[in-house]
Design brief:
Distance between the termini: 32 Å
Strand content: under 5%
Structural class: mainly alpha
Shape: elongated
Number of strands: 0
Helix content: over 70%
Largest sheet: none
Length: 193
């Protein structure tokens, strides 16, 4: 499976059909899907430069993975940040990953937490998982096992079986009262949505 398949499917979800440049975006998306990266770049770059969040996100992925452009984490950060500021959860998550690992930017776990949290609040499963781990370990944020269990519970309840093992790991280090509090916070979060 192509690395872009999940990315492309994700962007389809976050891109609205009625946005300016929707036809050009769809052309760029089709080109990216087909692996004709020069054509994708030609369609997506003008849209991205004009503020299209989905196009900005896709350019970020192209730079991060070196598809049709030289691999450049610094450029990926620029495009992801633009898309993240347009509330594209997938870009917020990728920006968090780059800050978390120091790819294209100085490692900055507090910034990673900030971006993970924005994406997690929008329902991004991997952001919820990674945010839970940050709260559990105290990296970039004050250690908080209750918030760790809350975010991991939200991720588990989304139906991703990969999260169950990490939920059990976090829960094994907590008291029943902390687990119950985290579960209550997760339920409260779901009701707000």
């Amino acid at each position: 499976m192509s690395i872009f398949r999940p990315i492309v499917l994700s962007v389809i979800i976050v891109s609205l059909a009625n946005t300016a440049g929707a036809q050009d975006f769809e052309k760029g998306l089709r080109a990216l899907r087909a692996g004709t990266f020069a054509a994708a770049l030609a369609e997506l770059r003008p849209l991205a430069e004009n503020g299209h969040g989905g196009a900005q996100y896709l350019l970020g992925t192209m730079f991060e993975y070196g598809r049709g452009v030289s691999q450049d984490d610094g450029a990926a950060v620029i495009w992801y940040r633009s898309a993240a500021e347009n509330d594209i959860a997938f870009a917020q998550y990728r920006l968090g990953v780059l800050f978390d690992n120091g790819w294209g930017v100085d490692e900055d776990r507090a910034s990673a937490v900030r971006w993970y949290k924005l994406a997690a609040e929008q329902g991004h499963l991997l952001a919820q998982h990674d945010l839970a781990l940050m709260y559990f370990s105290g990296q970039g944020v004050e250690k908080n096992p209750v918030l760790a269990i809350m975010w991991m519970k939200i991720a588990v309840d989304a139906g991703d079986e990969r999260m169950v093992k990490h939920y059990a790991l976090i829960a094994s280090a907590m008291s029943k009262a902390e687990i119950d509090e985290g579960i209550a916070l997760a339920q409260k979060w779901r009701k707000r949505r």
